[in-house]
Specification:
- The complex is a heterodimer of chains A (about 260) and B (about 450).
- Chain A is about 30% helix and about 25% strand.
- With about 260 residues, chain A is of the alpha/beta class.
- Chain A has a 6-stranded mixed sheet with strand order 2-1-3-4-14-13.
- Chain A is globular.
- Chain B has about 450 residues and is of the alpha/beta class.
- Chain B has 16 helices and 17 strands.
- Chain B has helices at about 1-20, 30-35, 40-45, 60-75, 90-100, 125-130, 145-150, 150-165, 175-180, 280-295, 300-305, 335-345, 390-400, 415-425, 435-450, 455-460; strands at about 50-55, 80, 110-115, 135, 170-175, 190-195, 220-225, 230-235, 245-255, 260-265, 270-275, 315-320, 325-330, 350-355, 385-390, 410, 430-435.
- In chain B, helix 9 links the parallel strand 5 and strand 6 (about 190-195).
- In chain B, helix 1 runs antiparallel to helix 2, helix 2 crosses helix 5 (about 90-100) and helix 10 runs antiparallel to helix 11 (about 300-305).
- The longest helix of chain B is centred in the first third of the chain and has 18 residues, at about 1-20.
- The chains are: A alpha/beta (about 260), B alpha/beta (about 450).
- The interface between A and B is medium-sized, with 35 and 33 residues.
- The complex binds zinc ion.
- Zinc ion binds near residues 216, 235 and 238 of chain B.
Amino acid sequence: MSGTPPVRVVTLYDDVMNVYADRGNVIAVSQRAKEYGLALDVSPVSLGDRLPADADLVLIGGGQDREQRRIASELAGRGEQLRAWAEHDVAMLTVCGGFQLFGRWYRDHMGEEIPGIGLFDVTTVAPGAGWPRCIGDVVAKSHVTGLGEVVGFENHAGRTYLGPHAAPFATIEYGWGNNGGDGTEGAVYRQAIGTYLHGSLLPKNPTLLDHLLEAALRHRTGTDIGLERRPAPYAERAHASAAEVARHRAPRFDGIAR
Amino acid sequence: MRQRTALLAGRGAGEAARRLGRGGGTALPGLVAGTLAPGLVEALAGQLGHGAVTVTGTNGKTTTAHLLSTVARAAGLEPLANASGSNLERGLVTAYVDAAGWSGRVPRARQRLGVLEVDEAALPPLWPRIRPRAGVFLNLFRDQLDRYGEVDSVAEGWRRMVARGGPATLVLNVDDPSIAQLAEESPGAVVGFGVEDPAVAIEGSEHASDARFCRCGARLTYDGIYMGHVGRWRCEACGRVRPAPGVAARHVELGRDETCFDLSVGGEAVPMRLPLAGLYSVYNALAAAAAAHALGIPVAAIASALGAAGPAFGRQERFDVDGREVRVLLAKNPAGLNQIVRTLGASPTPPVVLAMLNDGIQDGQDVSWIYDADLERLAGRVGPVVCSGRRAPDLALRLALAGIEPAAVDADCERALDLALAHTERGARLEVVPTYTAMLEVREALARRAGGRPYWEREQR
Ligand SMILES: [Zn+2]
């Protein structure tokens, strides 16, 4: 891969939206790129920073309610550019709170509505007291071609519902997923993925990691240079172990709303 | 009468559990007695002649309570403490039930001081029932989000609890902004403790910091970070600033097994040698010193007692196994693990490490937190690393991503311990870094192999 220009990675608010170790995603992207001999140019963009003119891969993680509120209005101002990037097949991974804010809106438990950027046609409602948080291990089957099984850990109060223009990222086998009711997990729009899975997600889902790197590379070069897939033995073992744990102790999704 | 019946039932249950060998019976009697007589905490707390001190915070509760008990004992008081890890309501009830006689009276109650470590989320409802003389607040880090929910809600619970008043002197870590700002809610006395030594600040910042924002909403400015979000903070927007600590450590020297610093209490300073490693141990010692000071114990007595203190259960305990020195460094969350990384990174020679990751309820079922710790700082500074525990594959992956290729991966505790010992030369050190339930398991294996008594006990004989 020497000779290809560096893949431009933008991490959004990684000093604010960082409660569930989503930083592991950035670490995994960097290490995997190194293994493939790809040069990376990582730009952290936080409150008050300018978005770069272009990007090939965008990453955003989850935050607490307070933190989500802190970034929401600024993120709204960046919505137009982020949506335009998505239209041009920039690869994106938005996790948990980041996923919610990339949807249309998030209504908190007090009924206050926080606007999202509407990149995904999804809406999220945080139910009031008495509703359990959706917490636990997850195994899901992805609808994205070639991705297969994804594993992770979810921890969210909000219930996310897909609108008519949204496609789910995966179907839940074990765990809660978007809302604990319809068996969907996350959302996909072109090369952008929204999900509730952290854990961290990319380190132990090497197929998804390679998929995102490939999409980013495609965006960078304008041609479909497939990566010569390399084995990821540590990642595969961690994946298998997480899947086994989930099958052992997470609730099996049986099509009944919880 | 009802309380007496409850006590009898509780003690009976405790005996039965101990005979059956179930976890020492630390919580069961509390569960039984607490269910039978809900007023038990109040009734028993009210008997203690010297009242009670609560110790809470994400990291350091057990060590701080242990150090405070040591100081109190040296000062002639008789501490009544709850057992390590039993820091929810039923654990507290258990401590009382165990101490109380058949009559429901705590013997020698006049000399007794309750030293109670309390889970950070469990404290607010217990606070008005215990009515502590002093409440120690250590720090607030992200920890087991799957169990507690979000850090913010814990801080909010503390603020409401403190604002309601009560007799307690607040003993606050001024270097942690979310702790220091509790003083704003308190109608009563406050003793602050903190580190006054810019030389031990870290370079750059750690990834896992939780309170980088002020209560006014602005981003905090740091003139030096000691760990996570703990350091010399100020807010340029509203003018809030780290208060000067009344109890402080100056001229801190971090050694491999001990820490030297000047302990200053209200202007009086004494040099001290703490037989525990790491800046986090300095904070625990300062917290214990500040609480002891609030109880009226003189500085010299505090310093000499701290200087002679041993480690708490599973926290820097050392064992001698076949001429190899094995130290156990409990790691429960990113902030704690970062402190261990710093301690290991300062070893004179790269140590052999046995790292153990479990995912039980007490460890946190979500193991993603290992990505928040700066394990990259260990690359090139450790010898062979063996990964173990129920989630050994996750740990091996994390280390590999940090640039540390594991020497071996084996989920089984005994086999992993054998492998790690095989990598350790006679006379050399093996550092064991387990999560909570892994610590219980490996500590038992080590105690058995070492012949029952921990290294430090034999060293002190
Ligand atoms: Zn402020």
